[in-house]
Amino acid sequence: MMKQVDVVVIGAGASGLMCAAQAGYRGRQVLVLDNAKKPGRKILISGGGRCNFTNVQAGHQAYLCANPHFSKSALARFTAQDFIDLAERHGVNYHEKALGQLFCDESAKEIVDLLLTECDWAGVTLQTHTEILAVHKEEEGFRLETSQGEVRCASLVVATGGLSMPKLGATPFGYRLAEQFGLSVLPTRAGLVPFTLHQADKEAFADLAGVSLDVEVSAEDGTRFREAMLITHRGLSGPAMLQISSFWLPGQALRINVLPGRDIPATLQEWVKAYPAQELKTVLGRELPKRFVEKLMELGLLVNQPLRQYNAPELAAVAELLGRWTVRPNGTEGYRTAEVTLGGVDTDELSSKTMESRKVPGLYFVGEVVDVTGWLGGYNFQWAWASGWVAGQFC
Ligand code: FDA
Fold first, then answer.
1. ipTM for the complex shown
2. Do 145 and 174 lie in a common domain?
3. Checking CA distances to 264, which of 78, 376, 389, 393 falls within 20 to 30 Å?
Protein backbone atom coordinates (compact mmCIF):
# COMPACT_ATOMS: atom_id res chain seq x y z
CA MET A 1 0.00 0.00 0.00
CA MET A 2 1.26 3.49 -0.85
CA LYS A 3 2.35 5.45 2.27
CA GLN A 4 1.40 9.11 2.48
CA VAL A 5 3.18 11.59 4.76
CA ASP A 6 3.63 15.35 4.89
CA VAL A 7 7.43 15.32 4.76
CA VAL A 8 10.04 12.82 3.63
CA VAL A 9 13.61 13.56 4.71
CA ILE A 10 16.24 11.57 2.78
CA GLY A 11 19.29 11.13 5.02
CA ALA A 12 19.34 10.38 8.75
CA GLY A 13 22.52 12.34 9.41
CA ALA A 14 23.12 15.59 11.26
CA SER A 15 21.01 17.94 9.12
CA GLY A 16 18.27 15.42 8.26
CA LEU A 17 17.52 14.43 11.86
CA MET A 18 17.55 18.07 13.01
CA CYS A 19 15.15 19.02 10.21
CA ALA A 20 12.86 16.05 10.84
CA ALA A 21 12.48 16.84 14.55
CA GLN A 22 11.65 20.49 13.85
CA ALA A 23 9.05 19.60 11.22
CA GLY A 24 7.60 16.98 13.57
CA TYR A 25 7.23 19.56 16.37
CA ARG A 26 5.20 21.67 13.93
CA GLY A 27 2.75 18.81 13.67
CA ARG A 28 3.96 17.55 10.31
CA GLN A 29 3.94 13.81 9.78
CA VAL A 30 7.58 13.09 8.98
CA LEU A 31 9.31 10.00 7.57
CA VAL A 32 13.14 9.87 7.50
CA LEU A 33 14.66 7.41 5.02
CA ASP A 34 18.28 6.27 5.00
CA ASN A 35 20.09 3.59 3.04
CA ALA A 36 22.47 2.83 5.91
CA LYS A 37 21.92 0.35 8.73
CA LYS A 38 22.14 3.02 11.42
CA PRO A 39 21.48 6.76 11.61
CA GLY A 40 24.17 9.37 12.21
CA ARG A 41 27.20 7.29 11.30
CA LYS A 42 29.41 10.28 10.52
CA ILE A 43 28.45 11.88 13.81
CA LEU A 44 29.56 8.73 15.64
CA ILE A 45 33.10 8.86 14.24
CA SER A 46 33.42 12.64 14.30
CA GLY A 47 35.89 14.53 16.45
CA GLY A 48 37.80 11.33 17.20
CA GLY A 49 34.61 9.82 18.69
CA ARG A 50 33.85 12.92 20.79
CA CYS A 51 32.05 14.97 18.10
CA ASN A 52 33.17 18.57 17.79
CA PHE A 53 29.49 19.51 17.62
CA THR A 54 29.77 23.27 17.20
CA ASN A 55 32.06 26.26 17.37
CA VAL A 56 31.20 29.26 19.52
CA GLN A 57 32.71 31.52 16.82
CA ALA A 58 30.53 30.13 14.01
CA GLY A 59 29.71 32.93 11.57
CA HIS A 60 29.45 33.12 7.79
CA GLN A 61 33.14 34.07 7.49
CA ALA A 62 34.08 30.50 8.47
CA TYR A 63 32.35 28.99 5.42
CA LEU A 64 33.32 28.55 1.78
CA CYS A 65 30.46 29.10 -0.65
CA ALA A 66 30.12 30.64 -4.11
CA ASN A 67 27.79 33.15 -2.39
CA PRO A 68 29.58 34.10 0.85
CA HIS A 69 26.38 35.68 2.25
CA PHE A 70 24.13 32.66 1.79
CA SER A 71 24.80 30.98 5.15
CA LYS A 72 24.18 34.18 7.18
CA SER A 73 20.45 33.77 7.55
CA ALA A 74 20.38 30.16 8.79
CA LEU A 75 23.41 30.66 11.05
CA ALA A 76 21.73 33.70 12.62
CA ARG A 77 18.44 31.90 13.25
CA PHE A 78 19.93 28.73 14.76
CA THR A 79 23.18 29.68 16.46
CA ALA A 80 25.93 27.75 18.21
CA GLN A 81 24.32 28.83 21.50
CA ASP A 82 21.01 27.29 20.40
CA PHE A 83 22.74 23.95 19.90
CA ILE A 84 24.60 24.31 23.21
CA ASP A 85 21.25 24.93 24.96
CA LEU A 86 19.84 21.81 23.28
CA ALA A 87 22.86 19.74 24.33
CA GLU A 88 22.53 21.01 27.91
CA ARG A 89 18.80 20.15 27.98
CA HIS A 90 19.81 16.60 27.05
CA GLY A 91 22.47 16.47 29.75
CA VAL A 92 25.41 16.32 27.33
CA ASN A 93 28.58 17.34 29.15
CA TYR A 94 31.10 19.12 26.95
CA HIS A 95 34.35 21.03 27.00
CA GLU A 96 35.96 23.72 24.88
CA LYS A 97 39.18 22.88 23.13
CA ALA A 98 41.24 25.51 21.30
CA LEU A 99 39.60 28.09 19.03
CA GLY A 100 36.02 27.81 20.32
CA GLN A 101 35.62 24.12 19.45
CA LEU A 102 33.10 22.28 21.66
CA PHE A 103 33.46 18.51 22.14
CA CYS A 104 31.44 15.95 24.11
CA ASP A 105 33.16 14.90 27.33
CA GLU A 106 31.98 11.32 26.88
CA SER A 107 31.03 10.21 23.40
CA ALA A 108 29.67 11.34 20.03
CA LYS A 109 26.90 8.81 20.57
CA GLU A 110 25.31 11.32 22.96
CA ILE A 111 24.72 13.65 20.00
CA VAL A 112 23.09 10.88 17.95
CA ASP A 113 20.98 9.94 20.99
CA LEU A 114 19.99 13.61 21.40
CA LEU A 115 18.80 13.81 17.79
CA LEU A 116 16.96 10.47 17.95
CA THR A 117 15.27 11.50 21.20
CA GLU A 118 14.17 14.80 19.63
CA CYS A 119 12.81 12.88 16.62
CA ASP A 120 11.01 10.48 18.94
CA TRP A 121 9.44 13.31 20.97
CA ALA A 122 8.40 14.98 17.70
CA GLY A 123 6.71 11.79 16.44
CA VAL A 124 9.10 11.27 13.52
CA THR A 125 9.29 7.83 11.87
CA LEU A 126 12.80 6.65 11.00
CA GLN A 127 13.32 3.95 8.40
CA THR A 128 16.87 2.72 7.69
CA HIS A 129 18.02 0.09 5.12
CA THR A 130 16.02 1.93 2.49
CA GLU A 131 17.29 2.63 -1.02
CA ILE A 132 15.60 5.41 -2.95
CA LEU A 133 15.05 4.03 -6.44
CA ALA A 134 13.30 6.99 -8.08
CA VAL A 135 11.73 10.32 -7.21
CA HIS A 136 8.84 11.72 -9.25
CA LYS A 137 7.28 15.17 -9.04
CA GLU A 138 3.51 15.03 -8.95
CA GLU A 139 0.94 17.76 -9.10
CA GLU A 140 0.79 17.82 -5.30
CA GLY A 141 4.23 16.96 -3.97
CA PHE A 142 6.44 13.96 -4.72
CA ARG A 143 6.25 10.19 -5.13
CA LEU A 144 9.25 8.09 -4.12
CA GLU A 145 9.93 4.53 -5.21
CA THR A 146 12.03 2.85 -2.55
CA SER A 147 13.32 -0.63 -1.78
CA GLN A 148 10.61 -0.72 0.95
CA GLY A 149 7.70 0.39 -1.23
CA GLU A 150 6.27 3.68 -2.47
CA VAL A 151 5.65 6.81 -0.48
CA ARG A 152 4.01 10.14 -1.31
CA CYS A 153 4.86 13.42 0.42
CA ALA A 154 4.07 17.10 0.11
CA SER A 155 7.62 18.20 0.98
CA LEU A 156 10.87 16.43 0.21
CA VAL A 157 14.06 17.31 2.12
CA VAL A 158 17.37 16.10 0.72
CA ALA A 159 19.95 15.68 3.50
CA THR A 160 22.23 13.06 1.96
CA GLY A 161 25.54 14.80 2.81
CA GLY A 162 28.70 14.90 0.73
CA LEU A 163 31.01 12.37 -0.88
CA SER A 164 33.60 12.03 1.84
CA MET A 165 34.14 8.61 3.41
CA PRO A 166 32.42 6.39 0.84
CA LYS A 167 33.01 3.49 3.27
CA LEU A 168 30.38 5.07 5.52
CA GLY A 169 27.82 5.03 2.74
CA ALA A 170 28.35 8.50 1.22
CA THR A 171 26.62 8.72 -2.17
CA PRO A 172 26.16 11.39 -4.85
CA PHE A 173 22.38 10.89 -4.57
CA GLY A 174 21.60 14.47 -3.53
CA TYR A 175 23.57 15.98 -6.41
CA ARG A 176 21.92 13.68 -8.96
CA LEU A 177 18.46 14.48 -7.58
CA ALA A 178 19.18 18.20 -7.83
CA GLU A 179 20.23 17.73 -11.46
CA GLN A 180 17.13 15.64 -12.16
CA PHE A 181 15.06 18.68 -11.15
CA GLY A 182 17.18 21.07 -13.24
CA LEU A 183 19.11 22.63 -10.33
CA SER A 184 22.73 23.54 -10.94
CA VAL A 185 25.36 21.66 -8.92
CA LEU A 186 28.81 23.23 -8.52
CA PRO A 187 31.82 20.94 -9.06
CA THR A 188 32.72 18.95 -5.96
CA ARG A 189 36.14 18.15 -4.45
CA ALA A 190 37.49 16.83 -1.19
CA GLY A 191 38.03 19.35 1.62
CA LEU A 192 39.60 19.18 5.10
CA VAL A 193 41.85 16.46 3.78
CA PRO A 194 45.55 15.53 4.21
CA PHE A 195 48.03 16.30 1.42
CA THR A 196 50.09 13.71 -0.42
CA LEU A 197 53.63 14.60 -1.56
CA HIS A 198 55.53 13.85 -4.76
CA GLN A 199 57.61 10.69 -4.45
CA ALA A 200 60.93 12.52 -3.89
CA ASP A 201 59.51 14.72 -1.08
CA LYS A 202 57.65 11.77 0.41
CA GLU A 203 60.86 9.74 0.62
CA ALA A 204 62.82 12.72 1.93
CA PHE A 205 60.40 13.34 4.81
CA ALA A 206 59.25 9.76 5.47
CA ASP A 207 61.46 9.30 8.52
CA LEU A 208 59.87 12.39 10.11
CA ALA A 209 56.43 10.70 10.24
CA GLY A 210 54.84 11.62 13.54
CA VAL A 211 56.66 14.95 13.92
CA SER A 212 54.27 17.82 14.66
CA LEU A 213 54.96 21.57 14.76
CA ASP A 214 53.05 24.80 15.10
CA VAL A 215 53.00 26.55 11.71
CA GLU A 216 51.25 29.26 9.76
CA VAL A 217 50.40 27.90 6.33
CA SER A 218 49.24 30.05 3.40
CA ALA A 219 47.52 29.13 0.16
CA GLU A 220 48.10 31.00 -3.11
CA ASP A 221 44.83 32.94 -2.63
CA GLY A 222 46.31 34.47 0.55
CA THR A 223 44.21 32.44 3.02
CA ARG A 224 46.27 31.44 6.04
CA PHE A 225 45.81 29.32 9.14
CA ARG A 226 47.97 29.00 12.22
CA GLU A 227 47.66 25.54 13.73
CA ALA A 228 49.62 22.30 14.08
CA MET A 229 51.12 20.51 11.07
CA LEU A 230 51.76 16.78 11.26
CA ILE A 231 54.21 14.99 8.97
CA THR A 232 52.88 11.53 8.04
CA HIS A 233 54.07 8.54 6.00
CA ARG A 234 51.96 9.79 3.09
CA GLY A 235 52.50 13.53 3.32
CA LEU A 236 51.25 16.44 5.43
CA SER A 237 48.30 16.42 7.80
CA GLY A 238 47.23 18.01 11.08
CA PRO A 239 44.69 20.82 11.52
CA ALA A 240 46.75 23.44 9.65
CA MET A 241 46.98 21.25 6.54
CA LEU A 242 43.34 20.10 6.70
CA GLN A 243 42.21 23.72 6.95
CA ILE A 244 44.30 24.97 4.04
CA SER A 245 43.39 21.97 1.84
CA SER A 246 39.96 23.52 1.27
CA PHE A 247 41.65 26.57 -0.28
CA TRP A 248 44.27 24.69 -2.32
CA LEU A 249 43.98 23.73 -5.99
CA PRO A 250 46.05 21.08 -7.80
CA GLY A 251 49.45 22.37 -8.90
CA GLN A 252 49.50 25.20 -6.37
CA ALA A 253 52.17 25.70 -3.71
CA LEU A 254 51.80 26.09 0.04
CA ARG A 255 53.99 28.51 1.99
CA ILE A 256 54.77 27.33 5.48
CA ASN A 257 56.06 29.59 8.25
CA VAL A 258 57.62 27.29 10.85
CA LEU A 259 58.21 30.15 13.32
CA PRO A 260 54.75 31.77 13.26
CA GLY A 261 54.09 34.97 15.12
CA ARG A 262 57.76 36.03 15.02
CA ASP A 263 59.62 38.69 13.05
CA ILE A 264 62.04 36.08 11.69
CA PRO A 265 64.78 38.40 10.30
CA ALA A 266 64.84 40.33 13.60
CA THR A 267 64.87 37.08 15.60
CA LEU A 268 67.86 35.82 13.59
CA GLN A 269 69.71 39.07 14.26
CA GLU A 270 69.05 38.71 17.99
CA TRP A 271 70.32 35.12 17.92
CA VAL A 272 73.49 36.16 16.07
CA LYS A 273 74.16 38.72 18.80
CA ALA A 274 73.26 36.45 21.70
CA TYR A 275 74.83 33.17 20.51
CA PRO A 276 77.52 34.00 17.90
CA ALA A 277 79.49 30.79 18.50
CA GLN A 278 76.47 28.44 18.45
CA GLU A 279 75.49 26.62 15.29
CA LEU A 280 72.14 27.34 13.65
CA LYS A 281 71.15 23.70 14.25
CA THR A 282 71.59 24.14 18.02
CA VAL A 283 69.67 27.40 18.25
CA LEU A 284 66.83 26.30 15.96
CA GLY A 285 66.67 22.97 17.78
CA ARG A 286 65.45 24.89 20.84
CA GLU A 287 62.49 26.26 18.86
CA LEU A 288 61.61 23.40 16.49
CA PRO A 289 61.67 19.58 16.62
CA LYS A 290 65.38 18.64 16.31
CA ARG A 291 64.70 15.95 13.71
CA PHE A 292 62.92 18.49 11.54
CA VAL A 293 65.83 20.96 11.73
CA GLU A 294 68.35 18.22 10.94
CA LYS A 295 66.25 17.15 7.94
CA LEU A 296 66.21 20.69 6.51
CA MET A 297 70.02 20.65 6.76
CA GLU A 298 70.40 17.14 5.39
CA LEU A 299 68.34 18.20 2.35
CA GLY A 300 70.52 21.26 1.87
CA LEU A 301 67.61 23.64 2.53
CA LEU A 302 69.54 25.20 5.42
CA VAL A 303 73.31 25.51 5.85
CA ASN A 304 74.63 24.75 9.31
CA GLN A 305 77.44 26.84 10.74
CA PRO A 306 78.15 29.06 13.76
CA LEU A 307 75.79 32.01 13.65
CA ARG A 308 78.57 34.64 13.40
CA GLN A 309 79.69 33.13 10.07
CA TYR A 310 76.44 33.98 8.23
CA ASN A 311 76.61 37.04 6.00
CA ALA A 312 73.54 39.18 5.34
CA PRO A 313 72.32 37.37 2.17
CA GLU A 314 72.76 34.01 3.90
CA LEU A 315 70.72 35.16 6.90
CA ALA A 316 68.05 36.47 4.53
CA ALA A 317 67.95 33.01 2.88
CA VAL A 318 67.52 31.34 6.29
CA ALA A 319 64.69 33.77 7.14
CA GLU A 320 63.04 33.08 3.77
CA LEU A 321 63.18 29.31 4.30
CA LEU A 322 61.83 29.45 7.85
CA GLY A 323 59.11 31.97 7.04
CA ARG A 324 58.09 30.84 3.56
CA TRP A 325 59.11 27.20 3.16
CA THR A 326 57.52 26.28 -0.16
CA VAL A 327 55.92 22.87 -0.55
CA ARG A 328 54.08 21.82 -3.68
CA PRO A 329 51.81 18.88 -2.80
CA ASN A 330 51.19 16.09 -5.29
CA GLY A 331 47.50 16.04 -4.38
CA THR A 332 45.25 15.14 -1.50
CA GLU A 333 44.12 11.84 -0.04
CA GLY A 334 40.74 12.55 -1.65
CA TYR A 335 37.28 11.55 -0.46
CA ARG A 336 38.66 8.42 1.22
CA THR A 337 39.83 10.44 4.24
CA ALA A 338 38.33 13.90 3.63
CA GLU A 339 36.05 15.29 6.31
CA VAL A 340 33.91 17.26 3.89
CA THR A 341 32.98 17.87 0.26
CA LEU A 342 33.38 21.33 -1.24
CA GLY A 343 30.89 22.45 -3.87
CA GLY A 344 27.44 20.93 -4.26
CA VAL A 345 23.93 22.26 -4.86
CA ASP A 346 24.32 25.85 -6.01
CA THR A 347 22.97 28.21 -3.36
CA ASP A 348 21.58 30.46 -6.13
CA GLU A 349 18.98 27.72 -6.55
CA LEU A 350 17.82 27.90 -2.92
CA SER A 351 16.16 30.37 -0.59
CA SER A 352 18.58 31.18 2.23
CA LYS A 353 15.58 31.69 4.56
CA THR A 354 13.97 28.28 3.99
CA MET A 355 16.50 26.14 2.03
CA GLU A 356 13.68 25.48 -0.46
CA SER A 357 14.40 25.22 -4.15
CA ARG A 358 13.38 28.34 -6.05
CA LYS A 359 12.44 26.24 -9.09
CA VAL A 360 10.71 23.29 -7.42
CA PRO A 361 8.37 24.25 -4.58
CA GLY A 362 8.41 21.68 -1.77
CA LEU A 363 11.95 20.47 -2.52
CA TYR A 364 14.57 21.36 0.13
CA PHE A 365 18.34 20.77 0.39
CA VAL A 366 20.15 20.94 3.74
CA GLY A 367 23.57 20.20 5.19
CA GLU A 368 26.69 19.27 3.30
CA VAL A 369 24.97 18.48 -0.01
CA VAL A 370 24.62 22.26 -0.40
CA ASP A 371 27.61 24.34 -1.57
CA VAL A 372 28.40 25.53 1.98
CA THR A 373 31.54 24.11 3.60
CA GLY A 374 32.92 25.11 6.96
CA TRP A 375 36.42 25.29 8.33
CA LEU A 376 37.64 22.53 10.59
CA GLY A 377 36.44 22.95 14.18
CA GLY A 378 32.71 22.23 14.55
CA TYR A 379 31.60 24.60 11.79
CA ASN A 380 30.29 21.84 9.52
CA PHE A 381 27.97 20.45 12.17
CA GLN A 382 26.79 23.96 12.97
CA TRP A 383 25.85 24.37 9.30
CA ALA A 384 24.06 21.01 9.36
CA TRP A 385 22.11 22.00 12.50
CA ALA A 386 21.29 25.51 11.24
CA SER A 387 20.25 24.57 7.70
CA GLY A 388 18.27 21.57 8.96
CA TRP A 389 16.57 23.63 11.64
CA VAL A 390 15.59 26.36 9.17
CA ALA A 391 14.14 23.93 6.63
CA GLY A 392 12.30 22.21 9.48
CA GLN A 393 10.31 25.42 10.10
CA PHE A 394 8.92 25.47 6.56
CA CYS A 395 8.87 22.00 4.97
P1 FDA B 1 25.63 13.31 6.94
O2 FDA B 1 26.77 12.72 6.22
O3 FDA B 1 25.72 13.53 8.40
O4 FDA B 1 24.33 12.44 6.69
C5 FDA B 1 23.95 12.02 5.40
C6 FDA B 1 23.02 10.82 5.56
O7 FDA B 1 22.46 10.52 4.28
C8 FDA B 1 23.74 9.57 6.03
O9 FDA B 1 23.04 8.99 7.11
C10 FDA B 1 23.76 8.66 4.80
O11 FDA B 1 23.69 7.28 5.14
C12 FDA B 1 22.49 9.13 4.09
N13 FDA B 1 22.52 8.87 2.66
C14 FDA B 1 23.50 9.15 1.77
N15 FDA B 1 23.16 8.75 0.55
C16 FDA B 1 21.91 8.22 0.65
C17 FDA B 1 21.02 7.64 -0.28
N18 FDA B 1 21.36 7.51 -1.57
N19 FDA B 1 19.84 7.18 0.16
C20 FDA B 1 19.49 7.28 1.48
N21 FDA B 1 20.29 7.83 2.40
C22 FDA B 1 21.50 8.30 2.00
N23 FDA B 1 32.17 18.21 11.34
C24 FDA B 1 32.21 18.94 12.47
O25 FDA B 1 31.61 20.00 12.51
N26 FDA B 1 32.88 18.49 13.59
C27 FDA B 1 33.57 17.31 13.60
O28 FDA B 1 34.11 16.89 14.63
C29 FDA B 1 33.59 16.56 12.39
N30 FDA B 1 34.31 15.41 12.31
C31 FDA B 1 34.29 14.65 11.16
C32 FDA B 1 35.04 13.48 11.10
C33 FDA B 1 35.01 12.70 9.94
C34 FDA B 1 35.86 11.48 9.87
C35 FDA B 1 34.19 13.09 8.85
C36 FDA B 1 34.10 12.24 7.60
C37 FDA B 1 33.45 14.26 8.91
C38 FDA B 1 33.50 15.06 10.06
N39 FDA B 1 32.79 16.26 10.13
C40 FDA B 1 32.85 17.01 11.28
C41 FDA B 1 31.90 16.70 9.03
C42 FDA B 1 30.44 16.35 9.37
O43 FDA B 1 30.39 14.97 9.72
C44 FDA B 1 29.53 16.60 8.18
O45 FDA B 1 29.74 17.89 7.69
C46 FDA B 1 28.06 16.45 8.60
O47 FDA B 1 27.84 15.13 9.05
C48 FDA B 1 27.15 16.75 7.42
O49 FDA B 1 25.83 16.51 7.82
P50 FDA B 1 24.77 16.06 6.72
O51 FDA B 1 23.49 15.87 7.45
O52 FDA B 1 24.79 16.97 5.56
O53 FDA B 1 25.32 14.66 6.17
1. 0.99
2. yes
3. 376
Reply yes or no on whether the pLDDT at 367 is more than 90.
yes
Q: pTM value?
A: 0.96
CB 160 within 8 A of CB 9: no
Centre a 10 Å sphere on the Cβ of residue 301 and count the other Cβ atoms it contains: 14
The last residue of a domain, from among 332, 364, 382: 332
Span 127-141, pLDDT tens digits: 999 999 999 999 999
Residue 208 amino acid letter: L
- Region 165-177 average pLDDT: 93
Q: 105 exposed, middle or buried (CB, 10 Å; 0-12, 13-18, 19+)?
A: exposed
CA 222–ligand 1 middle distance (angstroms): 29
What distance in Å separates the CA atoms of residue 233 and residue 196, rounded to the nearest whole number? 9
How many domains is the chain partitioned into structurally? 2
Question: The domain spanning residue 377 has which CATH number?
Answer: 3.50.50.60
Q: What is the CATH classification number for the domain harbouring 210?
A: 2.40.30.10
Based on the fold, state whether residues 22 and 147 are members of the same structural domain.
Answer: yes
pLDDT in the model for residue 12: 98
Report which protein residue has its CA nearest ligand 1's atom 2. 161
Residue 303: give the domain boundaries: 195-332
Mutate to test the pocket of ligand 1, among 339, 342, 365, 390 (most ligand atoms within 8 A of CB): 339
For the chain, helix, strand, coil in percent to 5 are 35, 25, 35
Q: What percent of the chain has pLDDT over 90?
A: 98
Please compute the mean of the pLDDT values over residues 162-167 and round it to a whole number: 92
184 shares its domain with 208: no
Instruction: Choose one of 309, 332, 355: the last residue of a domain.
Output: 332
Residues enclosing ligand 1, CB less than 6 A? Answer: 10-16, 33-36, 41-42, 45-47, 51-52, 132, 159-161, 164-165, 169, 171, 173, 339-340, 367-369, 378-381, 384
Atom of ligand 1 nearest to the CA of 17: 51
